[in-house]
Design goal:
Length: about 350
């Protein structure tokens, strides 16, 4: 029996609540399949850990995580801990240390999911964002000069390397080719005259290696407009770290809300563990109430299953999520229902067991 070793970092706010349902679902799938199983190890890292020990994770945290096949992350961030601390001292440390340079975020309007856009059919919103996940404006490079003085200056560098741009763009072309879909590059080459001109140049260079893939290029402001006015024009999308972060939240807004937003941080070479997470944040305002939507965590569990080669189970999970959304019997308050977090997770398990 194949064993997948998973590090569970439930994190902050609603993170432990939604992740518990994801773990429950994965365990049930392994019971039904019987050719693989999961070994989960919990780590108490996050903002509560920071308030107690002065750091977001153990000093040797990265060394501990190296032993695992994947990381299942709940949420990071809580009042009392500055956002840049919670982000840079846990989430981004993991992404960078394990070279998780591919961020995959599906923007797909599932059957039964609410959509705020008028006259948009379900099949019109079906995108996969491939976001560069290791550099750009999130590289952590810059300066803070004359701090606290009237002439204070801050400089935030956007770091774009040829290696970084080439590998994410080539990854996107490979996905577009395999899925026989169009590939859209999103940049801002008219205003960012170094970084984005460089990105556009590399996209054009690599496109010549893939003459069978239909390509399009958009400025980020135009792309954000078209995502609302004409979302069906986007299929596979490749973009930079910052633009990808912003546009995928817009994508979540038009495809059911943050409670249905999942993300994967991949090291495609599998030299290091990859990380899977719902992207809705810690939502401290509803933490502990048992009303958080676990479907994004369950969707990210589906991404983990696909990464491990269990695509049939991954697809079955998505079909069950669509069934739950369509039936509208067991939904959390954000989707207009009255169910608890656990009740939604139990419903997924019940449907898995039935099928």
């Amino acid at each position: 029996m194949k064993e997948h070793k998973i590090a569970v970092i439930a994190g902050d706010g609603i993170g432990p609540e939604v992740l518990a349902e994801g773990v429950k679902v994965l365990n049930r799938i392994s019971e039904l399949d019987r050719t693989f199983r999961f070994q989960f190890t919990n780590f108490p890292w996050g903002c509560e850990y920071y308030l107690k020990y002065g750091r977001m994770m153990a000093d040797d945290g990265i060394e501990q995580l190296k032993a695992f096949d994947a990381i299942f992350l709940g949420a990071v961030g809580y009042p009392g801990v500055p956002d840049h601390i919670s982000l840079w001292d846990l989430l981004l440390v993991i992404r960078k240390s394990f070279d998780q340079y591919v961020n995959l975020r599906p923007v797909k309007l599932l059957k039964g999911a609410p959509c705020p856009l008028k006259d948009v059919k379900q099949e019109d919103i079906d995108m996969l964002f491939i976001r560069e996940n290791s550099e750009g404006e999130y590289a952590g490079s810059g300066s803070w000069l004359f701090k606290g003085k009237p002439n204070e200056v801050v400089i935030q560098d956007g770091v774009f390397s040829r290696v970084g741009c080439e590998r994410i763009i080539r990854y996107a072309f490979e996905v577009a080719r395999a899925q026989k879909k169009t590939l859209s590059s999103i940049s801002k080459g008219n205003a960012l005259n170094y970084s984005m001109v460089f990105w556009d140049q590399i996209f054009k260079e690599i496109s010549e290696e893939y003459p069978d893939v239909e390509t399009h290029s958009y400025l980020v402001d135009a792309a954000s407009m078209f995502m609302v006015k004409d979302p069906k024009r986007f299929q596979i999308v490749v973009t930079s770290n910052l633009f990808g972060d912003i546009l995928t939240d817009l994508g979540a807004a038009i495809s059911g809300g943050m409670g249905l937003a999942a993300g994967a941080n991949l090291n495609p070479e599998r030299k290091y563990p990859s990380m899977f997470e719902p992207i809705h944040g810690s939502a401290p305002d509803i933490a502990g109430q048992g009303t958080a939507n676990p479907l994004a965590a369950i969707w990210s569990a589906s991404q983990m299953l696909e990464f491990f080669g269990h695509k049939e189970w991954a697809d079955r999970l998505i079909a069950i999520i669509e069934e739950i959304l369509s039936e509208k019997r067991v939904l959390t308050p954000d989707l207009g229902g009255t169910a608890t977090t656990q009740q939604v997770g139990n419903e997924v398990v019940r449907k898995l067991s039935r099928s």
